[in-house]
């Protein structure tokens, strides 16, 4: 049997794999891009953004009905799933100072605690970044350093500058605060979520639902409150109302499959949320319109596709903490594991005045994503000096890490010097904030990437890039531990895996299009992706907290911070050794899959 090395040595078999020029883009891309116009995107957006769309609301259901009707009229197969979701609707908040007329505009946050009214002494903790020594572990519980390092907030109503977030809310609740007032750094109020649960809470995560009352006020009102506090001790009253419980949710899913497809045909998953705060123009009625047009246009050109495209409009993003996408991951786990080749998330596109391009992607799709931006920008005669890249955070319906799907999202946003994305999560996110020429270009980036993913002979994922990123992360985590955590065995195994799959990328094109090749690539990628993005179980969503690559090794820094005889050091050491074992097992699984892939390609090449 010939090996990859023998195949690569044959000049008759080796093909150079390069990014296509403008003249070499897939025919499907040209056809789909030509079919999607600013006018069509405008028509859909105008209808969708005419409804207020919190999860489970009549407005959300009306928008879903519109999307489904348009798909069916175009002959696109669509299914509508119905399920019960755990949602939280912030109703009202009041922040007052008894005995004064101070009563500013205020809102509460989804999944925060409710109170008819609680009074306490106000305590100013400054800004979020100034909170001393607070951290949240990657496991199931809050980790706090010694009490001596923390302010005594017991029974206090705490003021802190920053938008409401889950980590400070969780920390302040654990420290005994009576309530927290977030002072927005800007002169606005942004609706947000303060739970770290992901999707519908389970018995393993329900304890992470906050009970601390949360209010948010504008910067000027925060300044006024602090001025009153400067004169002496001040009593503040906070009252909040939150509606929380179960509601029926609907999830439309369009399935665009190539001719001759069967139940094993691989597919790309494209998702974006259809719910939103208020009328949700750019977050994200514009995205919903783009998804609708892409589903219709790809369906019309499915004869040129090798893989399918599944398009899902997620409910439960904004006030159910990614409830819709997590439900889909739970219910279709096996199908996604055996057929999914990538997840593309679309969010916040079509912003008026957008100038900055960036890509949020797994290492396996980062180069592919930046090339897509540059190619589409070149065609639009829009010079792009720099395309920012970043690792996807714990946000944006990234509910598929446990399955091992590589991730890709394009971002085209406003500059801070132009005012930034100031209307995000406010009542001002309306239809007029959408620029349809910008939206057409943003849709074009997704169209190009999807076209490549569904038409290339083999899915263009960078296995070597993913493994090399893992090597870098292992080296970084070892350094964070002060070299107390020995990861040399894992680093060596990963470097050997990188070399092995480096041979394969030189010869994949010779194998020709094959679902077996598609899923063989995924079998190598999946175990690596999981340890790069998931700190614990692949089937139970981890907390919605960003913790960097190899999150299961987040506690490595504890070994550098603590003395070896402390409980905290020894507890961290036990956790890290177990995670190291998990990493070694994942590398071994990927290495075995690489060997099976080698044998498959040798058979296909002959």
Q: Tell me the fraction of residues in β-strands, as a range.
A: 15-25%
> What is the domain total for the residues?
3
Please tally the β strands and state the result: 15
Secondary structure tally, helices: 16
Averaging pLDDT over every residue, what do you get? 90
By secondary-structure content and strand pairing, the structural class works out as alpha/beta
> What sort of overall outline do the alpha carbons produce when their principal axes are compared?
globular
Give the CATH topology of the largest domain. Answer: Aminopeptidase
**Main sheet characteristics:** 13 strands, mixed
Fourth-level CATH superfamily of the largest domain = Zn peptidases
The stretches of 5 or more residues where confidence is low (pLDDT under 50) are 1-23, 133-148
Q: Using the coordinates above, name the CATH class of the largest domain.
A: Alpha Beta
Query: What is the radius of gyration?
Result: 25 Å
What's the helical proportion of residues? Answer: 25-40%
User: Quaternary arrangement of the chains shown?
Assistant: single chain
Q: If classified by CATH, what would the architecture of the largest domain be?
A: 3-Layer(aba) Sandwich
| Distance N to C terminus | 10 Å
Descriptive overview:
There is one protein chain. The chain has 606 residues and is an alpha/beta fold. It folds into three domains: 268 residues, Zn peptidases (Aminopeptidase); 150 residues, 3-Layer(bba) Sandwich (Glucose Oxidase, domain 1), CATH 3.50.30.30; 146 residues, no CATH class. 39% of the residues lie in helices and 18% in strands. The chain contains 16 helices and 15 strands. The strands form two sheets. Strands 1, 2, 3, 6, 7, 8, 9, 10, 11, 12, 13, 14 and 15 form a 13-stranded mixed β-sheet that branches. β4 and β5 form a beta hairpin. α2 packs across α7, α2 runs antiparallel to α11 and α12 packs parallel to α14. The protein is globular. The N terminus is likely disordered.
């Amino acid at each position: 049997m010939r090996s990859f090395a023998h195949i690569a040595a044959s000049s008759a078999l080796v093909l150079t794999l390069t990014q296509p020029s403008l003249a070499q883009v897939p025919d499907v891309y040209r056809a789909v891009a030509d079919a999607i116009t600013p006018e069509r995107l405008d028509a859909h957006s105008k209808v969708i953004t005419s409804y207020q769309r919190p999860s489970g609301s009549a407005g959300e259901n009306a928008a879903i009905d519109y999307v489904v009707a348009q798909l069916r009229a175009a002959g696109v197969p669509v299914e509508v799933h119905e399920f019960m979701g755990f949602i939280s609707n912030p109703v009202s908040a009041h922040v007052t100072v008894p005995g004064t007329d101070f009563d500013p505009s205020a809102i509460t946050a989804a999944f925060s605690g409710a109170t008819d009214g609680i009074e306490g002494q106000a305590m100013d903790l400054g800004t979020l970044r100034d909170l001393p020594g607070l951290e949240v572990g990657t496991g199931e519980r809050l980790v706090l350093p010694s009490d001596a390092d923390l302010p005594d907030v017991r029974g206090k109503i705490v003021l802190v500058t920053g938008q409401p977030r889950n980590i400070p809310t969780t920390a302040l609740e654990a420290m005994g605060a009576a309530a927290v007032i977030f002072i927005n750094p800007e002169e606005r109020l942004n609706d947000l979520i303060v739970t770290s649960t992901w999707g519908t809470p389970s018995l393993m995560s329900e304890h992470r639902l906050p009970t601390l009352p949360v209010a948010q006020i504008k910067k000027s009102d925060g300044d006024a409150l602090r001025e009153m506090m400067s004169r002496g001790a001040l009593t503040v009253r906070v009252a909040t109302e939150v509606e929380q419980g179960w509601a029926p949710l609907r999830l439309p899913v369009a399935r665009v499959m190539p001719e001759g497809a069967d139940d094993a045909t691989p597919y790309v998953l494209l998702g974006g949320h259809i719910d939103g705060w208020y009328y949700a123009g750019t977050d994200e009625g514009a995205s919903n319109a783009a998804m609708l047009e892409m589903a219709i246009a790809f369906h019309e050109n499915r004869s040129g596709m090798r893989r399918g495209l599944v398009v899902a409009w997620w409910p439960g993003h904004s006030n159910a903490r990614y409830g819709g996408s997590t439900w889909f991951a739970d219910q279709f786990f096996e199908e996604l594991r055996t057929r999914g080749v990538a997840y593309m998330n679309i969010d916040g596109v079509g912003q008026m005045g957008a100038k900055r391009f960036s890509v949020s992607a797994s290492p396996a799709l980062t180069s592919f994503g930046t090339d897509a931006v540059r190619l589409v920008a070149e065609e639009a005669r829009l010079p792009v000096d720099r395309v920012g890249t970043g690792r996807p955070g714990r946000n944006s319906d990234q509910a598929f890490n446990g399955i091992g799907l590589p991730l890709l999202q394009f971002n085209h946003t406003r500059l801070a010097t132009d005012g930034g994305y100031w209307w995000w999560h406010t009542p001002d996110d309306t239809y007029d904030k959408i620029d349809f020429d910008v939206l057409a270009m943003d849709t074009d980036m997704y169209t190009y990437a999807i076209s490549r993913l569904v038409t290339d002979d083999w899915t263009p994922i960078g296995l070597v890039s993913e493994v090399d990123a893992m090597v870098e992360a292992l080296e970084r985590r070892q350094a964070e531990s002060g070299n107390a955590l020995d990861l040399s065995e894992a680093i060596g195994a990963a470097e050997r895996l990188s070399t092995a799959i480096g041979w394969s990328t030189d010869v994949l094109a010779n194998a020709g299009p094959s679902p077996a090749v598609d899923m063989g690539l995924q079998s190598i990628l999946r175990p690596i992706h999981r340890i790069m993005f998931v700190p614990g179980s692949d089937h139970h969503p981890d907390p919605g907290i960003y913790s960097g690559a190899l999150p299961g090794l987040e506690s490595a820094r504890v070994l550098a911070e603590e003395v070896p005889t402390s409980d905290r050091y020894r507890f961290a050491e036990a956790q890290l050794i177990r995670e190291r074992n998990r990493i070694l097992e994942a590398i071994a699984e990927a290495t075995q899959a690489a060997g099976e892939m080698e044998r498959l390609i040798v058979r296909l090449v002959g």
